[in-house]
Structure formats: structure tokens, C-alpha cells
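Why this split exists: single-chain examples teach little about how molecules sit against one another. For that reason, every record in the complexes split bundles all components of an assembly together and asks for one structure covering all of them. Below is a record exactly as it appears in the raw files.
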Amino acid sequence: MTTLDTITEDVVLGRSSDAGEPAWLTDRRLAAYKTWLDQDWPNRKVDEYWRNTPFDRLIDVTLPLADDGDSAGVELPEGVVDRLDNPAATVTVVDGAVLDVRVADTWADRGLVVEPLRDAAAGPWAGVVSEHLGSLTTTGNGSGRDEDRTISANDAMWDAGVFVFVPAELEVTDPIGIQHYITRPGVHQPRLLAKTDHHAKATILVEHLGGDFPDVETTSRAKTAAVVNEVMEVIAKDSSQVELISLNEHGDDVAYLSLQKAGAHRDATVRHYSATIGGATVRLRPEVDLLGPGSAAFPSGIWFADEGQHFDVQPYMRHLAPRATSDVLYKGALQGKSRAVFRGNVYVAKNAVGTVTNENNRNLILTPGARCDSTPFLEIECADITAGHGSATGQIDARHLFYLQARGISREQALRLIVLGFFNQVLDHITVDAVAERTLAVIEREIDLADLDQVAVAANSLELED
Amino acid sequence: MAELEIRDLTVRVDGTDILNGVTLGLEKGKTLALMGPNGSGKSTLAYAIAGHPSYEITGGSLLFKGEDITGWTPDERNRAGVFLAMQYPVEVPGVSLTNFLRTAVNARLEEDKPVREFMGDLRQAMADLDVDESFLQRSVNEGFSGGEKKRFEILQMAMLKPEIAVLDETDSGLDVDALRIVSEGIDKLRGPDLGVLVITHYTRILRYVDPDEVHVMLGGRIVASGGPELADELEEHGYEHYAVSA
């Protein structure tokens, strides 16, 4: 049985050849394996990016790598992807196997490619895959910082991979929906490689569902029966526009680690929206390398943590070229004994003159017992830029509550309006109706879970005028 | 008995007694002016009537249609027909004005008013108060000027059709044009089914909304009551005269 901790060269080789992967891909995996071999697991004392998420306590590296057993015929709940109007393509992934790929004829005819990553690597798209796979994760080859062992583990052993290619000047106006289901415990390592060629346009929605294993014993209370260790790479070539939407509605028994990274070339725009709702432990990294002049990144997202959940969201924008723009906006709510961490990073390189960047995070602590740490970081090596950042964590404002109640709105309804209003600024950014509807529904569900009698109201700051 | 009957009311805020026995009756169809200098307890009375949780009623009674409402929540009071137009309306970020008003109107009516009918009423109320339709897209009071906030308070009053309305310093911060629009809005709502309590420091608003009675508050008590002529006296002599006698 191979675990995250006991990967061997033979296992990497065996898996790759069993899957019929081309030699270059096997070599790529072996190189990642060698990196993995040289690394230790993340340690909060050494790696500041893991400071708030104790890897050794929360992630069980002794779990077996889940194999893509017989997943056909498993009953799958409906997700957002199922509710998309006229999707350009849909992909269903179950337990590390890409089960179903459908591409609408109208888009396939015009050149949209959506297929399993292994097929792409072995077929006519091998050149594109070879050029870009790992280009944003591999030290030396890519633009990023040194990656940790979770990333080399995925580089070496990713299982269900999806490849998306949008040819130059094709504007795919319907969303591409990818659904990941977990029906068995163990380690799952999905991968996405997407490329929008110059002046192309696409919206890619990745949804994570499943992962309730109440009967499976775990090695400790804080650890989960399933780990999803995911890497997404999005290559946005010149003047292309890509939107990546990530919806995490995992069950209670999942630890979800996900790097969702885009490289934005000249005048390209990358939008990113994430909703973090499910799972016991989540460490989400929405990242954009602004590689070309005039590129832009608009990452936004929400989370709603309840009893026992630990969310660590770390957007990272790297301004590596002049006149690029980034605007980071995250809003989170917490209730019960839960924890959320926002660690926002914006790096502006020496040559990135004319950078405009903004970074904001707001958190609402709904009931006592929750804790949130929010730190927006700026690392600036260039003088000629405009940068702003802000962070605030608070409770429901007593003045808001009284105002609504004084208009006949019940306390419960008023709390609902205030919480939805709090998220509204982010919800406005959502471009896909089904995603907006789902986000609203999950926020409502979380409010339903809350003990509204326990809702903490901020010390009455109303000035007692007279 | 008057619609709103306040008897010997005492109110404490943050451990300090602010109202020291206020007695006042407001009937439907009548307009009362409550005047007094800053710190006399006028707004405390307004918040106490509306049920603000920080204003602790320590004695006396507050009756609406003969029922003691001191134990009622603010929303219960409003739904019953008691409305407070606030001196400093609160910005509620992200809550759309239209959604807020619809929720409030449905709560007051205790039924779902058809959207068409609701929007018709809303557009009419907006036209009456010279409020631009672009406000429909905005969040409650967010980014509103002082005058816009006050207009929006009266717009809510028009939509919620209360039986008792307490207008707390609605004139403060308004320029002459805005005061005229807001006052005409209030005037239009007056009638046999509405009792209005106008709380004000200055007599300015009373030139537009003429009161049936004027009461003067000082040190948490009503120190003088009379007809509209009392307001003119105050205009001339100020509150100092009462400060001596109080």
C-alpha cells in the first residue's frame, strides 16, 4: 500500500506505465519524485505559509493513495455543474478517474478541447501539455517560489487530470464545468491544466463534492479519512480572458489542499472566484503571476466556517511586469468553534512600474468561539505604484440590527439580511447565475445552522444622542 | 384613551437616569411637537418608544392602544404601527433598498404584497419625495447625503403606513429646499389615521408641519405644555427661561 509518505520510484514508474503515459511524462513525474524525496513535509515552525495550519496535526500522510477503483454506477448527487445552462463542456471525475467528458458540438467544432490530461499528454496536444504542465509549480522552470512537498507529491503522482485548451480568438461564452466526487477515503490528487491562447476567452468551473465517511476511523481526531491534494495551472496567453471558479462543498471528512495558479501574459485578465464551504481542513491558494505588461487579476471569494472547520485562504498576486492590476477581495463568516485564516500576499517586483493593486479581507464572527486571523501582506520592491490593503474582523453591528428591527423586520430576518448584505460585494462579482444561486443557497444554509439566539452583536457603538 | 399613552416614564441609559417621569398622550389625527435643548432627553424618549435595547425602562408605562408594549421587541412595535424616523439613519451595507423595503412592508402587512403593487407604491412614494429612481439600486442609506437619509426615512414612513410616527430631529441637517420637500412629505401623510410626534430643537420644521400641541422637555421631564404659540415663545426667548424654573 502506497501512502503520501511512502512514494517510491517503482510506484511512480508503475503507475505511469500502467496508464500508458508517454516517456516524457514519466520522466517529469520521476523528477518531481526526486524533489519530493529531498523535501520534508511542511512544518509550521519553518514555513511561514504553513504557520497557521499545522500540517503534522491535520494532514494524515499515512493514508493510502486512493486508486481509481470501480467508480461507475456510484450514485452522484447533483451539483452546480448539473444546473448550468448550455455548458460548453462538462467533466465528471470520481475518485481519481475521469469518467465522463462531454463537449458541446458547437464548441468542439470551433476548436475547444476538453479531455483527460493523460489523453492530451499522449495525443496531438502533447506539445502543449509538455510545454505548460508544471510550468507554474516547478522551481526553476516556472515563475513561482520554491514549492513545498505537497506540490511535488501532486507533480509526481497526480491521478485525475483534466486538460482544457481554448484556441486563439475563440471566445467560449458558455461555462466549462468540472465535477470532482469523492466516494472513498484515501488521498486524491486531481490536476487541471488549462490554456487560453491569445485573445481567447473561457470560464472554467471546478466543483468538489462528496467526502462523508463517518464510519471510517482516523488516526487522530483532527485528521480526516480523505485528503484531496490538488494543483490547477491556468496559462492565460496574451489578451485572453479566463475566469476560474472553485466551489468546495466537500463533506466533513476531507482535508483539501489546493493550489489554483494562473500565469497572466500581456494584457490577459484572470478572474478567480472561490467559495469555501465544506471539508474539515482547507488550505486554498488562489495565485496569479502577472507575467505580462497590462495583465490583470481579480481574485475574490467567500468562506463560511462552522463548528470544527479550519480554513486557511492564501491568495498570492505576483506583479512581475509593468502596468499590471490586481484587486483581491475576500469575505468570510464564521460560527461555532471554527477557525479561518486569511493570509493575502501581493508582491511587486522592481520592474513592475505602474502597478495598481488592492487587497481587502472582511470577516464576520457570527457566534462566540470562532477565531479569525487576517493579514494582508504587501512586499514591494518598486516605488512607482499604487497599492492599498485593508482587513477587518467584527461581529454583527448592533446599529444595523436595531435599524432593521425598527422597520418591523424580525431579528432572525434582520440577521439574514445583514449577513447576506455582508457578502453582497463579493456576490456581485459572480458571473455565472448557477454559481450565484448556489452561493446564496449555501450561505442561507449556514445561517440556518447558526443558533441565532447565540449571535454576538458588536458592543453598541450607537452614540446616545440627545 | 390616546393611541400612544406615556405615563410617568423613567428610562436609564448606561446606568444613568435620563427620563425622570414623562407623561404624554398622542392621539390619531393629532400632531405633537416635543421641543427641548440638547441633552434634555428627547431622543431617549424616541428610542424608548421604538424599543431600543440599550434604553432601559425603569418605571412608568408605555401603552399603545391600551396595551403595555414595554416588553415588545422593536420589530413587534413597528409591525403594530409605531414608527420611528431616526435622527441618524444607519447605513446597512450590501442590503438593497428595494429588498429591505419589501421585507419591511410585508412584515408590517403580515402578507406578501404582489411585487407589481409594491413597486407601484414605491415609485409613487419616491416621486412624492423627489427621490431619484436610481436609489432603487442602492444599499440602505449607503453613501446617502444627510438630506437623502432623512427623505428616505419619510419614504419608509409612507410605505409602512404607521398609526403613530415619531420623527426624531428630522429637520436637522436639512437645507431649506430639502426641509420643504421632507415637510410636504410628512404633511401629505398626516390625517385622521396618523398621530405624529415631531421632536425638534428648533421651530423651523413647525412652520411647515403645524402642531396641535407643543411640549417642552428639560432634564428628562416635560416642563411646559401649550398650543402652537408656545413654539413662538421658545423661538423668541429660548430654553433658558425654563432652565431656571425647572
